[in-house]
Amino acid sequence: MISTQTPICDFNTPAIDFNLKGVDGKIHNLASCKGKNGLLVMFICNHCPYVKAIIERIIKDTKELKALGLNAVAIMSNNPKEYEADSFENMQKIAKEMDFSFPYLMDKTQEVAKAYGAVCTPDFFGYNTNLALQYRGRLDASRKETALSSVKRDLFDAMSQVATTGQGPTKQIPSMGCSIKWK
């Protein structure tokens, strides 16, 4: 398992459209996922210890962001042949068990992850209402272990700002996680 950091935010880069199957059996795209104030695109997976350490916080934060008009979508781009935990069936199981309030999509060809420049799980891309990139940073100070509940909510605070002003913070701390398992 290789630990990787995300690049810095390239402000105003447009979001890239996708047509991916979700664990709900439906095909989702950028327009169907976007909220009135923006969209958080998350590259996650089931097996990664960095994702496991924050998944409950992701669920909590995305529910709170939805109330601000900012929707979220999670994309799993790993090669499931390397980790059975990342299979479509296990994605369905985790989404149901954890009660995901956002679509969880399978990027079977890995083309979406490559188009976005995703490098690790978790990798967060926060877009404003015009689908222009405003955040590419971490959720919080958690790593392979969940940080204390008192830590700054980097992603939530940044995306709340995006939802209300259309612009993300200039200072952002990169996300860190397991490298995407490329085919």
From TrEMBL:
<dbReference type="InterPro" id="IPR000866">
    <property type="entry name" value="AhpC/TSA"/>
</dbReference>
<dbReference type="Pfam" id="PF00578">
    <property type="entry name" value="AhpC-TSA"/>
</dbReference>
<dbReference type="InterPro" id="IPR047262">
    <property type="entry name" value="PRX-like1"/>
</dbReference>
<feature type="domain" description="Thioredoxin">
    <location>
        <begin position="9"/>
        <end position="144"/>
    </location>
</feature>
<dbReference type="InterPro" id="IPR036249">
    <property type="entry name" value="Thioredoxin-like_sf"/>
</dbReference>
<dbReference type="InterPro" id="IPR013766">
    <property type="entry name" value="Thioredoxin_domain"/>
</dbReference>
<dbReference type="GO" id="GO:0016209">
    <property type="term" value="F:antioxidant activity"/>
</dbReference>
<dbReference type="GO" id="GO:0016491">
    <property type="term" value="F:oxidoreductase activity"/>
</dbReference>
<protein>
    <submittedName>
        <fullName>Redoxin domain-containing protein</fullName>
    </submittedName>
</protein>
